[in-house]
Specification:
CATH topology of the largest domain: Thiol Ester Dehydrase, Chain A
Main location: membrane
Order of helices and strands: HHEEHEEEEH
Helix content: 25-40%
Number of helices: 4
CATH architecture of the largest domain: Roll
Structural class: alpha+beta
Number of strands: 6
Bound molecules: ligand 3IX
Distance between the termini: 18 Å
Number of domains: 2
Enzyme class: hydrolase
Keywords: Apoptosis, Cell membrane, Cell projection, Cytoplasm, Fatty acid metabolism, Hydrolase, Lipid metabolism, Membrane, Transit peptide
Largest sheet: 6 strands, antiparallel
Low-confidence stretches: 1-13, 211-222
Mean pLDDT: 86
Membrane topology: Peripheral membrane protein
Protein name: Acyl-coenzyme A thioesterase THEM4
Length: 222
């Protein structure tokens, strides 16, 4: 097996601030472009109804790409996907590309636009809304020097269908802290229309939980 040509020290046990760049963009811009291409494939596959011949041809091409990438496989602490905090979607093709606009110690605002890949039929799929809230609320919960915490609950209310191909605004607020508990609220708007809101609890990890954070699910990606 070919070793990866680049080793990225982006998994910091002290936890980086999730609104600050953690990776040298010089070495990783091509990876960001790869993920962007994967998003284009996801959208194109979703939107298409190819002939059997074309479906088979594209499946072969995609499997060839997967085989090529597998020769560069690294462990989860070393992977780039999901850790490119500074780029929308964090370098992870499933997550909707969230653009962060403003950040304070207790608030965040951002924008997100989803396409048909994330559609539940002419509107955003109900499973995607929590992905968006989890991303923005978790990042806020774990920023501004706060020790790392995990989501204990995330309650989402769906107030109106969220349109596709339309910019939505996302806001997040840290409501307060009680000991290890951090209470947060999020809202998703289309213009003046409240599309969804959420309340979540993040619980600060105990030292032994922090030590095991990247290892306690060992083997779960297999
Ligand atoms: C699909 C797209 C993905 C895109 C992104 C992809 C990749 C990202 C990749 C990399 C990201 C990079 C870095 C991120 C790294 C790590 C972040 C990981 C964070 C997560 O990915 S997170 C995932 C979902 N999350 C969990 O996997 C949590 C499972 N769970 C637990 O780990 C425990 O459950 C825990 C720790 C939450 C609490 O456990 P514990 O033992 O420490 O807490 P304890 O019992 O002491 O409770 C203390 C006080 O919290 C209250 N409390 C607790 N739970 C409550 C509840 N549910 N409701 C109401 N109150 C609750 C108690 O009542 C008590 O309150 P009081 O003190 O007042 O009595």
């Amino acid at each position: 097996m070919t070793e990866p040509t680049t080793t990225l020290d982006i998994w910091n046990p002290g936890w980086p601030d999730p609104f600050r760049p953690t990776v040298n963009a010089d070495t990783d811009d091509e990876y960001a472009d790869l993920v962007e291409a994967l998003r284009e494939v996801q959208e194109a596959v979703t939107r298409s109804r190819p002939t059997p011949e074309v479906a088979a041809e594209v499946a072969t091409a995609l499997r060839t790409a997967a085989r090529r990438l597998r020769t560069f496989e690294v462990d989860e602490d070393t992977q780039i996907a999901g850790k490119r905090w500074e780029i929308p979607g964090k370098g992870h093709a499933l997550a909707p590309a969230l653009h962060i606009d403003t950040v304070t110690d207790t608030t965040v605002t951002g924008r997100v636009t989803v396409g048909r890949f994330h559609s539940g039929r002419y509107a955003m799929n109900g499973g995607v809304t929590p992905l968006i809230f989890d991303e923005i609320l978790a990042r806020l919960a774990n920023s501004a020097g706060r020790p790392w915490g995990r989501t204990a609950y995330l309650n989402v209310n769906y107030r109106a269908p969220a349109p596709l191909h339309t910019e939505l605004t996302v806001t997040a607020e840290l409501l307060g802290q009680e000991g290890r508990k951090r209470f947060l609220r999020g809202a998703l708007h289309h213009g003046d229309v409240l599309v969804a809101d959420a309340e979540g609890l993040w619980v600060e990890l105990k030292p032994e939980q922090t030590l095991n954070i990247s290892k306690d699910a060992e083997g779960s990606d297999r």
